[in-house]
Amino acid sequence: LSRELVERAMRGDRDAFGILAERALPRLVGTAGLILRDADAADDAAQETLVRAWRDLPGLRDPDRFDAWLHRVLVRACGDQARRRQRDRNRRTDGEPHRQTSDGSQRLADRDELERALGRLNPDQRTAVVLHYYLGLSHPEIAEATSQPIGTVKSRLSRALDVLQAALAADGRVGAPREGST
Amino acid sequence: VTSDREGLERELASRLEEMAPSAAPNALRRASARIAATPQRGAWAARLASASGSFGWVGAGATGAVVAAALLVGIFIGQAASPRGIGDSPSIPASVPPASATPEPGIEWEEPRSYSFVLADNRCGGGERNYFGNMRVFVENGETLEYVALDETAQRFSGAPSDVPTLAQLLARVAEARNAADPDVRLVTDSVDGHPVEIFIDWAPEAIDDEECYEILRYEELDPEAGPSASPG
């Protein structure tokens, strides 16, 4: 059924694409939210993913690879969104030091140690962690989604776990991680 | 929170699910509005034919449908006006803003009833899309009637003629890109009759491999009675 929907969507069937989009949306938003740690940014990234998917779907060579292909589109959309947010933050902080989240965005709260620890990862590490432990992608699948060699994926995951462990340990000792403590 | 490695991995697998946001209040609605205004590559004719409809999966009456309808009116004006297509429209580029990065001669191209051109599409975009390659395209009454492959890339293209864009449809894509969020769009037109000769669209300048660039070569108006076989390129 999924293949049929993808093939219909590839031929321009908007209803078919709508079904695929609605099915995929919770995972898209969840993944983007964990990678970007910002609800507004996740919303934007999910939106961008759907638009790009619709636009580029005719170029998909194997309909059975739709999910893997969509993950790749999502990762790129998250990367673009992260850079855009960073650029906006840089603009805002020009002459306005220490002013944060003044735009009313629903930034995801750092509710506990694990969330704070995830915030210590760089975007590439966090992406690998989310794809592996949230979406359940294998190393080769993450490599495809991120356009990176498998070795790079493995090292990113390994390094990410090191950072998380160190951050959690530091959090447990002093209550909050400090810059450079990893 | 445990800090040993295996425990951490178990923790991640279980906790990420509950940490992930589950709601995207705007994504679907805004995406649908943008998609409704985005004719994708391929199936151009089918998309244009259905362009006057709303984007169904958001639901009638949703804000997105209203936005989509407004965008569609702007983008497909000219195409939707004639059941025979865009050939009868007096001025196709009416909704296309002037080019920003290239000299604009100020000549407004009118799509002839019958014309031909060589579409060269093999330079931009990378892995996310298939190229048309180099092909001679024959257009009549606003629809691609036939194409003739001129290189291996075009020979691999297996779409129907209606999957190959006309010049008016490429200009509609330029207009669509200029309505998008953050595009880099360049349009070069012929100084004599105003037909497009080069189109560059970078939908998201910070993303790689999403660019489109087309060259239009050897454009010529045709005698509609002669048919495409008169000049097979």
Summarize the structure.
The complex is a heterodimer of chains A (182) and B (233). With 182 residues, chain A is mainly alpha-helical.
* Main sheet overview of chain B: 6 strands, antiparallel
Task: Provide the helix percentage of chain B.
Answer: 25-40%
Which quaternary structure do these chains form?
heterodimer
What is the end-to-end distance of chain B? Answer: 70 Å
- SSE topology string of chain B: HHHHEEEHHEEE
Helix and strand element order of chain A: HHHHHHHH
Strand order of the largest sheet of chain B: 3-2-1-6-5-4
User: How many H/I helical runs of chain B?
Assistant: 6
Low-confidence stretches of chain B: 39-105, 228-233
Distance linking N and C termini of chain A: 47 Å
Secondary structure class of chain A reads: mainly alpha
Q: What kind of sheet is the major sheet of chain A?
A: none
Give Rg of chain A in angstroms.
18 Å
Strand content of chain A: under 5%
Low-pLDDT stretches of chain A are 95-110, 173-182
Binned strand content of chain B: 15-25%
Shape verdict of chain A: globular
Fraction of residues in H or I helices of chain A:
over 70%
Mean pLDDT of chain A: 81
Count of extended strands of chain A:
0
Number of strands of chain B: 6
Notes on the structure:
The complex is a heterodimer of chains A (182) and B (233). With 182 residues, chain A is mainly alpha-helical. In chain B, a hairpin with an 8-residue loop joins strand 5 and strand 6. Chain B has 233 residues and is an alpha+beta fold. Chain B has a 6-stranded antiparallel sheet. At the A-B interface, helix 2, helix 3, helix 4, helix 5 and helix 6 of A face helix 1 and helix 2 of B.
List keywords for this structure.
heterodimer; A: 182 residues; mainly alpha; 8 helices; globular; B: 233 residues; alpha+beta; 6 helices; 6 strands; 20% strand; elongated
